[in-house]
Each structure stands twice: as C-alpha cells, then as structure tokens.
C-alpha cells in the first residue's frame, strides 16, 4: 500500500513509501481509508516537538484521524463486520492514517452515522474528542456557565464552540474579523479580534477556559477565570495534574520530569494561589466516547467545518496548508 512516512524528525517533505498492508491482531480491524484529516499534531510529531513525551519508531506513517470501511476483522472482534463504515482517532503509539489502509483496535473506532460523509466523519475524531474531553470531562461545563475558548476559527475551535454551546455554555472566543459571523453562527456569544492591542482586557471573567493557545495568552487567562474555576490547556506544557494521571506510555524519566516541572511549575503555582483547577491534557482515543459525541452532534445538527479537501497525492500540500496556521476549520485528505 502507499503511505506517507518520515524516517527522521525535521521539516523535509514526507516520503511516499510502499509498505505491506498491515494484518490485524485478534482485537483489531483492518480499515481501507477513504478520508483522513490533518491536525497540527501531525506537524508536531514530524518536527519532533513531542519527542519528550511520545516515543517514535522510524519510519513513521503520519496521520491520526480516519474514516473508511472495515476490510477484515480480528477473531475477537464482534461489534464490527466487513463493510462497516467506521471512523476514529488512532492512539499516539499507533498512528498512520496518511495511508491506504490502517489497523486499529476495535475499541478505538465507532460507526459513521448515515448522515455524515466520509470527509465530514474524518474531520471529527481528534478535534471532537479533544473538545469533548476538555469541556465535558475536565471542565464539566454546565448550562449558563461562561466559557472562554480562544482561537475559535481553527479545526479544533470550530468544533469546540458548538459543543460548548450544546452543553449550554455562553462562549467567548478570539478570531480575525473575517471569522466573526461564522463563529457566531456556530454558537459563540462574543468574538474578540485578537489583532487588537490589549484584546485580553475586553474578555471579562469566566467560569472556565479551554486554552488552545499556550504561552503568554494562557498565562493571561489566569486573570480572567474566577477563583474555584477551571482551566484546561491543549497547548501548554504537561503539568503535575497531567503527569499524575498518565499510564505507562507517558512514564517519564526523572530528568524529564524535572524539566517539565521547571516549565509548568510557574502556572501550577499560580493556579494554586488563585484556587483554579488547572491541567494540561492530551486527547485520548476512544470509540465509545466518539460514538457518544457523534450522537450529541447529530442530535443537535452540528457538523464539522471543512475548510479544504486535498487528494491523497496532495498530502504534503495539505500539511503545508495546516502549517500556515490559518486554516478555518478542518483540512481533509480524500482517497
Ligand atoms: N493536546 C491535545 O490533545 C491537542 C488536541 C488537539 C489540538 N491541539 C492543539 O490545539 C491547537 C489548535 O488546533 P487547531 O486544529 O484548531 O489548529 P489550526 O486549525 O491550525 O488553527 C488555525 C486557526 O488559528 C487561528 N489563530 C492563529 N493565531 C491566533 C491567535 N493568536 N488568536 C486567535 N486565533 C488564532 C487562525 O485564525 P487566523 O487565520 O484568522 O489567524 C486559524 O483559523 C494546536 O496547537 C494543536 O496542536 C492539542
């Protein structure tokens, strides 16, 4: 099969490789991929930005999200059969959806509802699960709460806003002026132009924040969340609460723990001083949760926002477009 791979970290173009079609284990299915979406984490994995917390064996096929058709099932798989339309987010230690086929644990996939195309389905798993785990599991967003979600116009924000709105939150986001109408239509109450100087002072106070930005913007967010409130970031440094929760895959050696403590200790301290529950999170794969989320989306007529589609042989161009940092919604590769 054809697959887009890297054999070392760096900014070099992807290699189009010929690989054997993988064979599913007893608990896996083999999926023929019809669509795969691109996420900034594909670039982070490619550049080696996550090497401290994610081990990589080369050659590595990139790609986390997929939608496709079950071609073969392992002997212990009873919930899916050949021909089922399925989608999912591949786990961090078994990625590779920029390929014609992929094997995946059956527990990490869900059926695609009839009302979603393969392109729409491929646009949901990683950003949908991230938004759902952040807003529902960690922030426990309740109806009427004021929630801050910066950078609402990208792939993640464009699904996080409607999910937060469906959970009953009053959502404030930041974006360029061109995206204001679209983000209000998705459910944002207030859209602040992040190009204005001191835009953070216009924000007011929130019950919770789902940070997509990290850096200075994350630090400043602490001044806008009430005592007793919560902040979850997907773009800061792994912090104490995150490391405490992790399983074997993310067990870090002592020097690395020390480094991360240096990088995240300041915000942990700030959170403690202000009585804010603060954590970094990395999205987890889950077919059951993807099915739960998809029910929520379809019941409330929420669709993912698709910015552009690219063909499989344009995979590098799709990655370059996401690397520009200006995608307005999801970028999907079709086969
Ligand atoms: N930890 C995790 O599990 C996890 C999971 C998912 C995503 N993430 C991270 O979350 C971040 C967002 O992901 P994404 O898929 O939404 O990325 P994306 O689609 O590439 O985001 C692009 C969008 O960001 C907007 N933007 C750029 N600079 C901004 C700023 N200073 N303020 C407000 N908006 C700004 C751009 O709008 P303009 O063009 O108008 O500037 C563009 O629409 C990424 O860093 C990603 O790696 C982490």
UniProtKB/TrEMBL annotation:
InterPro entries (alphabetical): ADH-like_N, ER, GroES-like_sf, NAD(P)-bd_dom_sf, YIM1/Zinc_Alcohol_DH_Fams
UniProt domain Enoyl reductase (ER): residue ranges: 10-333
Coiled-coil blocks: none
Domain of life, per lineage: Bacteria
CDD domains documented for this protein: MDR_like_2
Listed GO MF terms: oxidoreductase activity
UniProt-listed Gene3D superfamilies: Medium-chain alcohol dehydrogenases, catalytic domain, NAD(P)-binding Rossmann-like Domain
Pfam families in UniProt: ADH_N (PF08240), ADH_zinc_N_2 (PF13602)
Protein name: Alcohol dehydrogenase
């Amino acid at each position: 099969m054809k697959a887009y791979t890297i054999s070392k970290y760096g900014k070099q173009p992807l290699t189009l490789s010929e690989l054997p079609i993988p064979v599913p284990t007893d608990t896996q299915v083999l999926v023929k991929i019809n669509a795969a979406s691109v996420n900034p984490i594909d670039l982070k994995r490619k550049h080696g930005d996550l090497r401290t917390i994610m081990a990589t064996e080369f050659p590595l096929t990139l790609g986390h999200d997929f939608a496709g058709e079950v071609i073969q099932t392992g002997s212990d798989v009873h919930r899916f059969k050949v021909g089922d339309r399925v989608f999912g987010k591949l786990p961090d230690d078994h990625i590779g959806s920029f390929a014609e086929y992929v094997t995946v644990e059956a527990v990490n996939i869900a059926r695609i509802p009839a009302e979603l195309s393969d392109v729409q389905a491929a646009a949901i798993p990683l950003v949908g699960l991230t938004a759902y785990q952040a807003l529902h599991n960690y922030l426990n967003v309740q109806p009427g709460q004021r929630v801050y979600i910066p950078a609402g116009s990208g792939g993640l924000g464009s699904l996080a806003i409607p999910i937060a709105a469906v959970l009953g939150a009053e959502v404030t986001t930041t974006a360029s002026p061109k995206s204001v109408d679209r983000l209000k239509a998705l459910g944002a109450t207030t859209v602040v132009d992040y190009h204005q100087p001191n835009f953070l002072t216009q924000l007011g106070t929130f019950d919770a924040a789902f940070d997509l930005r990290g850096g200075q913007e994350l630090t400043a967010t602490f001044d806008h969340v009430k005592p007793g409130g919560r902040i979850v970031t997907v773009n800061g440094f792994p912090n104490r609460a995150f490391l405490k929760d992790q399983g074997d895959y993310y067990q870090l050696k002592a020097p690395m723990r020390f480094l991360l403590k240096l990088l995240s200790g300041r915000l942990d301290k700030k959170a403690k001083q202000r009585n804010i529950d603060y954590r970094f999170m990395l999205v987890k794969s889950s077919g059951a949760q993807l099915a739960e989320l998809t029910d929520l989306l379809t019941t409330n007529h929420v669709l993912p926002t698709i910015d552009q589609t690219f063909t499989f042989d344009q995979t590098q161009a799709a990655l370059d477009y996401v690397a520009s940092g200006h995608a307005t919604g999801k970028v999907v590769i079709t086969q």
